[in-house]
Amino acid sequence: MTLDLYLAFIIYALTTTILPGPNNVLLLSEANRHGFKKCLLLLLGIWTGLITLMILAGTFCTILSIWVPKIVPVFKYIGAAYILYLAWRTFTRKGASSEDEQTKEKPLPFWNGFLLQFLNVKVIMLGLAAFPVYFLNGASADNNNFYIGASLGANILLTLLFAFTMTICCGTGNIIWASLGSILRPIYNKYYRIVNTIMAFLLIYCAVKILLV
To answer: For the chain, what is the HEC assignment?
Structure first.
């Protein structure tokens, strides 16, 4: 893999992951509600889920590419349903008049962020599309085995490089959106109905986009 190709992948990853998506919108909403620090476990869950999913995508790219037509429809509906649930939860939240009242509702835990990645068709498709194009582009186009001509050690290094790079790029967007939510937190209590409605509609938009993939 050349340096130019790797830089092209970084640009691709940043461009596709910094835009509004289920992870970023959820972090914006949660940080707005609870503050940045209380969303660290959710953020860690998202990153752990991302790197796990990217490793799986890189390792089993050939097998998954064969089964994608059968798997994607299932993930579409399960993922969209879960995101719609998050939209409803966001829409029905109430503002709090004090810090003590805000702490009564706990922020989403680690496992919510981790499991969301495996229901997020966008993340799955990003991994399956990017790995063979940017990291295994020398493979034969007439053969489904993307590992042709590469040693086991090289394949492992490529997979880990891909997974860590994708997670760092996604994490950059996550931190930006969570920080925005934390900065805007003082405004939340005054305009929580408007903010919740906007966040809910953004999540609904994400669910619709998943169904249209």
So the answer is: CCHHHHHHHHHHHHHHHCCCCHHHHHHHHHHHHHCCHHHHHHHHHHHHHHHHHHHHHHHCHHHHHHHHHHHHHHHHHHHHHHHHHHHHHHHCCCCCCCHHHHCCCCCCCHHHHHHHHCCCHHHHHHHHHHHHHHHCCCCCCCCCCCCCCCCHHHHHHHHHHHHHHHHHHHHHHHHHHHHHHHHCHHHHCCCHHHHHHHHHHHHHHHHHHHHCC
